[in-house]
Fold these 3 entries.
Entry 1:
Amino acid sequence: MKAFIVDRYGKKRALRLADMPTPELRDDEVLVEVHAAGVNLLDAKIRDGEFKLILPYRLPLILGHDVAGVVVKAGPRVRQFKPGDEVYARPDDFRIGTFAEFVPVKETSLALKPRNLTMEEAASIPLVGLTAWQALIAKANLKKGQRVFVQAGSGGVGTFAIQLARHLGATVATTTSTTNVALVKSLGADVVIDYRTQDFEDVLRDYDVVLNSQDGKTLEKSLRVLKRGGKLISISGPPDPEFGREIAASGFVQLVMRLLSSGVRRKAQGLGIGYSFLFMKANGGQLREITRLIEAGAIRPVIDRVFPFESTHEALAYVESGRAKGKVVVKIR
Ligand SMILES: NC(=O)c1ccc[n+]([C@@H]2O[C@H](COP(=O)([O-])OP(=O)(O)OC[C@H]3O[C@@H](n4cnc5c(N)ncnc54)[C@H](OP(=O)(O)O)[C@@H]3O)[C@@H](O)[C@H]2O)c1
């Protein structure tokens, strides 16, 4: 099958289109014929070698973390899916590879595609949708009437997180640049801060939750807009010791994580704020809940551009530009 692969780690190295064997199907997996694949910054970071410690992949590696497609084969232990089902997923770590014609996905990581979405729209959802879900619901336990600050509201995670937070009944503040103010308002943001002309620290006070996706300076400032008892959840680092334990990292890697996050953890503790790092995980159950919200019209996909399969490298470069409005998708079939 045709696939875009990384055969050597390297910053901005072009992915290579190669002929690869179709991965072997395990008993608890289905083989998905890929129709569309979402593109994520995680793909670029893995290609650059930034995740070698956390995700020690063997090369060559087929990249791609989001898929929408059709089940063509089911392993003997699969119960809920059959050939012909239209599905979508964020495959598990170490089983990624959606920039390809076929990808095996564990049954427990898969969900039926929302009926009201095209394949391209569905492929834009899993990774960012699950990230928002795991941050706002699983970690923050965000409730009606609470106030949440979602950074970068016009990005892949932001466009989903604003809608999810609004659905939960929270008041949502977000940052974006002037050209995207109308977009984030249309998604339900109540307070919009143009980060090119305003500082969010001057506007927001006593928030319950911050979803941090930016740099260390922004992380530090975020502490000051939270109230005592508030929660700072970061998806852009630094990783905390709990995450190290979750992924069963080596003693050395756990020590590195402890050191990297010691500053923010200490400051958060001093202010009575909970700090946690999130690295999202595949989860078919949560994805089914997301399907329900999309079919009910509570959340809609936001797609910036769809690239043809041959242009996967260009799609990744576009995501890396940091200017995407919502998601970037590659159409494979
Ligand atoms: N830990 C995890 O599980 C996890 C999961 C998903 C993503 N992430 C990470 O989270 C980050 C965001 O991911 P993403 O997919 O949402 O990114 P993205 O879609 O590529 O973000 C692009 C958007 O960011 C906005 N932006 C850029 N600089 C900004 C700033 N200083 N303030 C506010 N908005 C800004 C841009 O808007 P303008 O053009 O208006 O500037 C653009 O719309 C990345 O670092 C990604 O790797 C982590």
Note: The two ends are 13 Å apart (CA to CA).
Entry 2:
Amino acid sequence: MRACCLVLLVLGTAAKAQFPNQNADLILQGGEIYTPSGWAEALAITDGVIVAVGNAATVSGLRGASTEVIDLAGATVLPGLHDMHVHPQGGGGGRQQCQFPQGSSLEIVQSTLGGCVSERSSGEWIIGGQWDSASIGSPPHRSMLDAVAPDNPVVLTDISGHSAWANSAALEIAGITAGTANPQGGVIERDADGIATGVLRESAAGLVRGRVPPPDPGQALDSLSYSLNLMLSHGITTITDAVIDEGSMRAYAELADQGVLKQRVRGCIVWRPGGDQISTTPDPSSPLARANLYRRDRFSPDCVKLLLDGVPTDGHTAAMLDPYADATLEDDERSRGILMLPQETLNETLIALDAQGFAVKMHAAGDAAVRAGLDAIAAARQANGFSGILHDVGHNSFVHMSDIERARSIGATFEMSPYIWYPNPIIPDISRAIGPERMQRWIPVKDALDAGVLTVPGSDWPVVAEVNPWIGIETLVTRQAPGGGGEQLGEPISLEQAIDMFTVNAARQMGNSNRTGRIVPGLLADVIVIDRNPFEIPITEVHETQVLKVLIEGEIVYGETMP
Ligand SMILES: [Zn+2]
């Protein structure tokens, strides 16, 4: 028995030893291939690994009788793109919801909601979005929803995803009365009489959302597959799902077991104060303790998401170092926003998660929250030494220059999201709350790159309407609306820097530098074929890029035929 296995082992080794000389499974040739050392003509792949990149003559040496050859016909090949902050379940689930376009007026919200009411039976929950106060024209109030939906509980998410607008029926089901105290990390907005207006900020939104029946497992799988396919069609080969729970871990594992999960997925398990006891003995029934049950080759639930603050809109929930520009005296308590975790709790949590091997992604929009996140990473390095895990401060709408300067030295990374690096309906809201001066450095991508901080991009879809990374790449460079024109924001970077953010930087952030992110021999063949070379066209046309083919580990997972 032992002898037999030894022989098999030796044979196995021998077969692998021939590997560099064996014929390629697939050759892509006749195109423009983006590599760290310049443009190449051809690329050869064996067993999912890039085995050669170079001119056509060199690569054709690996061509054998069984080698498949794809003529690129002048198309461009880039490394597969990463979206480092996305909510696929929510993005796909939105299709069944009551949705109106971002920037909708009250009239449009009400007429859309009226239509949704007519399609549902009395008492059935209606969920949807996405509203913003500036477009509604006045602070949203439950009575505006009651007028068209008196008999259905309604909860509508705002454009940032951080506030909910509920009608009276929903507030009643959630048991929210004048006597209900604000939950930790949340605000129940109230009128002059102390009665809830229906607007619920941050964790307070959970009081109502927690009462909405969850989608059935079939629906959850359907939403997830829809989103993963949509992202593949845009050339996204690796994602970080920024909020997962046990249900979504089960869904990813099931898709992986069915062989339909193609992307590399990192999942971040959301943790809130009062949840699992991270620092002492983890609850064995918690998602954190159960993560390895759901781990698969393409799915790693190895990240924890912490919410440090909210959003810098009229709700003033992002934690700022200096008061909001439109803070009033009555508003004193919230004039600098909300930091949701005391620094000491945050530090203890970071130290414990780092020691347990989890990467931490922190939601931090305001500069005070970013500082708190960096302080916590510094505390983990101090306590544990450098674990090799790159923890991530995410969003970074506002970051103090001194914090950008120290991020690199503590091994912290910045995830810049969402893809609204250009004028968008949420900006007037933010600009009014923050004031024009601080808006100059809104999402300071350039400052971060100039300081040498590892910086990666996230769409935060469906917080933004489009998961399309080509819009993100273009607008990181132009800081104008897709296609150019109109107002221009600050902090523009180069096209090369933008593509690096989506490829090599992102791979490095995930600890995958030796596997993906660049087109070089030895790395896995996660590559995309696109219809134009972004370096050879006007930058304002990059957002129209069409993806022709996507390969993950050498397997063609999108686009079967070439034009
Ligand atoms: Zn998000």
Note: The first strand starts at residue 26 and ends at 35.
Entry 3:
Amino acid sequence: MIVAALVGLQLAAVPPSVVSVRSGALETVAPLVETSVGRVVRLDRLAPALPVTVRPDGPGRFIVSLFDVAMTLSDQVPYARVGATLIPLGGAPLVDREALLVPLQLVAEVLPRLMPAQLSYDPVRSELRISGARPVAARPTARPRAKRRVVVDAGHGGPDNGMTGPIGGRQKIREKDITLAVSHELARALRREGVEVVMTRTTDTLIGLYDRGPIANERGGDLFLSIHVNAANLRWRRPGDARGFETYFLAEAKTEDERRVERMENEAVRFETAAQAPKNDPLSFIIHDMAQNEHLRESQELAAAVQDGLARVHPGPSRGVKQAGFVVLTTAFMPAVLVEIGFGTNAAEAQYLATPARQREIADAIAVATIAYLEAYERRLGSAGR
Ligand SMILES: [Zn+2]
């Protein structure tokens, strides 16, 4: 009975199962696919009535051209980039068998808002309509100057030890010592390659989470690398077994594991005085105001480069590129990533992380990946300027 009643209710409020595009007499109809993140549509299926082209631009990334507007969309990233502007989306695009699926909201709201002279959307008919007028060209992006100054941020310090471990181990390691040692090695490796380095701390001192970004900004950093050590949740079934490395960029945490690391790293705020930490919740403010943040895609690419680089030396496993709302990253106005170089709660990994030669390897791998990223970034700027 209950099942039948539920089905009845769903049918009564059934949402449209297709979206159509009408351009004069021409009409294209594309199916809407129900997913856990809402209804999505294959964008290329809206052609030819919609004069859209979708072409791949690197792993999980697509350039969507429509009229004179070029938009970059990335798998699992809930923002569309147009020039230097990031537009928040109602949900993240998905890639399924190399095809780009976008939330219906992109078609129903974002595109008509971007191109009001060409597009309008009728929610009753679930129809995007095209009018005849020529579009206005998107603003070209400013070309930033190429230089190389990397900010290296050793996590925690002073009274904030960060995590301690391993679980059940006699010899304890402290996160703040490991991050400082690896950061010094990282600075050395980058300087060896002619990169300027700014360190947020060089000794065992406390630098507030909210101060680390501004230090990076004032010193004119191009990239921000924050080094941390992970800790297992003691409520896990076998917390001492967790190991491996992961690299984060700043975006809303999506999984329980991402939220765990976000909570853990943002905990350090409690070491700061009330005057240091901004009022109300700056984190949610900044995440929701990420149209201001021009560095999402670059941060994501930097994170992928660092994660790949670490995979060459680290016994692993690689836990992948992840996203979370770290306070330390919100205030750095540059591509920024946070690297969890291993689990200090795991006995073998704690020993690995505390070994100077391994610290050097980790630092060298991050440095090589960072330089490769910078070179690719400069090439991209070069070709964009041509
Ligand atoms: Zn940490």
Note: Residues 185 and 360 are 6 Å apart (CA to CA).
